[in-house]
Specification:
By secondary structure, the protein is an alpha/beta fold. It folds into two domains: about 130 residues, no CATH class; about 150 residues, Nucleotidyltransferase, domain 5 (2-Layer Sandwich). Helix content is about 50%, strand content about 15%. The chain has ten helices and eight strands. A hairpin with a 5-residue loop joins strand 5 and strand 6. Helix 1 crosses helix 2. The relative contact order is 0.13.
Length: about 300
Amino acid sequence: MKNGAVKGKQTYLSKDCGHRFFEGSDFPRMKTKSKVISTAIDLFYEGLSVRKVQFQIEKLFDVRVSQVTVWEWIMKYSELVSAFVIKFSPQLSGEWKVDETAIERKAVQKWFWEIIDEETRFLVASHLSGDRTIGDVVQLFEKGLRMSKENPTTIYVDGLPSYQKGFNKVFYSKYKEERVELVRKAGMRARKNNNIVERMHGTLKYRTRVTRGLKEMETVDTLLKGWTVHYNFVRKHQTIGKTPAQASGITVQNERHQLIKDAVERETNDESIVRKALRAEISSLVKPVIEKVVFT
């Protein structure tokens, strides 16, 4: 229903979630049309700098926004959609290709780790670190299990010693039927074996070229989460002709605007459940006090 206006823009109040929406936007509390926001984020993850995204948004939609606003959209919705897509259960081949690559910007180096499913090209998990330790390998494999919901059959890695010890901590089993095979290769054989991952490294490094730096770990982590969503759910893979999400049986449109809408709806529902639970808890605490005062 209509809920007044802000600076001449009509606003509406949702009876279901209680959020305020601006006319033309499906995203709560956002003045700019939702299609403009989702397009801006798409352009950024396709490789444009924030300044160039700002220019293209004005050119395409005749909408003027600051670079700070564009950056806030990217940060906010990258986190939101990343938290949303973890609920999906991709149907994977079980063959994991694992590798790590150095990302350098302005004399700052970080390590980006990833697990790619052989058949679907789905990016099962990623991890950002300042070094290549056993703990980093453990975190990467645990993230992979949270997404895949089951053990892989085979994991291919290079000759980095941390892989073996990290693998043992996560996947070791004394039962033969539960064992996961670790295939370790070094040198050129490993590079050839992991060429799927290496191609993805090229795409990732192209993306990080237009960022200003990698000093803030939390900021970079958010960007990589958003890039992972873009890789899995938005951008069609040239080899398989569809998104990795679609190849793994996840029935979603390869369209960021819809992904954000679905993520917002889930967040709203979660907030509604929390509010109801909180009201019920407050009521259960207050009611005995009121009865005691009234009937005493």
